[in-house]
Amino acid sequence: MSQRILDRLNENYHLSENDQVIVTYLLEHLEEIPQLSSRELAKKTYTSATTIIRFIKKIGYKNYSDFKYHIVLMLKNMNLDNYDIFSGEDILSISQKVSQLENDTIQKTKDSLNQKDLQDIVSSIESQKYVDIYANDTNSTICYYAAHIFSRLGIFVQVYKDTDLQINHALNIKNNHVIMIVSKHSRNPYLIDLSQTLLRRHIPFIVFTGQNQNRLSQNATYTIHTPFDPQSSSIQEWVFYTSLKYIFDLIYSLLYSMSYEKTKKYEQLYDQIFFKNL
């Protein structure tokens, strides 16, 4: 597994001998990387701090802090190739892969979340009560799911999947709604332009994306990363949707806990109305 990841990185970034030593160490010590300084990593890989900085810039990171925050998630994502579905696989093999993939995806998402950012996001939603989401295609379907479950908490979500509505909303929205942008690849030019519009208008917004380095995140107030590697396999879109649903479920659960008594009373009233004539 580690050799396959090393080969892929070498193919994409033309790694030097020192780079390969660094990658090998990263793969074997993923959990300790966030605690290491660049000098400590250089010492452990028998290289230099200059070599470390050169390496992280080669693979697309701006600085060492940015690298530490994202590299573990990136390398873990590449391990998801192990769950590819092949022609002729039996039911037992596929069922094991599907269940393990969902578990691993949720665990990787959980590990990558910034707890302070998540708490800030939840507090903002609880305070504002209104959430507007820009999302296209299947992404919007997951967001409609969020709209349904959040409404049980008295929080109302509007999903904008049409480009003209997204543009008009970004041009007119006041600073009293929570704005979210959902994009797997973060390459949609309209969404990038909308993020710049929101930034110019000083409207805070949250980006949900599967890409570590992208222009949407550069403009965002908060970014939540999900496991997603578009080069690795045909199951990656499913991984993104599983991760996105988990994040919405997590936000819902935190909000539920914050207003537990109020929500329980609301649920009783809802059930009285909904089941009255059934």
Shape: globular
Counting H and I runs of at least 4 residues, what is the number of helices?
13
Question: What fold name stands as the CATH topology of the largest domain?
Answer: Rossmann fold
What is the CATH architecture assignment of the largest domain?
A: 3-Layer(aba) Sandwich
At the fourth level of CATH, the homologous superfamily of the largest domain is Glucose-6-phosphate isomerase like protein, domain 1
- The number of domains is 2
Instruction: Give the spatial strand order of the biggest sheet.
Output: 2-1-3-4-5
* Low-pLDDT stretches: none
Q: Roughly what is the average pLDDT, rounded to an integer? A: 88
- Alpha-beta content class: alpha/beta
The biggest sheet, with number of strands, parallel, antiparallel or mixed sense and barrel status, is: 5 strands, parallel
Q: What radius of gyration results from the CA coordinates?
A: 21 Å
- The level 1 CATH classification of the largest domain is Alpha Beta
Question: Helix proportion of residues, in percent?
Answer: 55-70%
Percentage of residues in strands: 5-15%
Write the element-wise H/E pattern from the N-terminal end onward: HHHHHHHEHEHEHEHEHH
Quantity of strands, as a count: 5
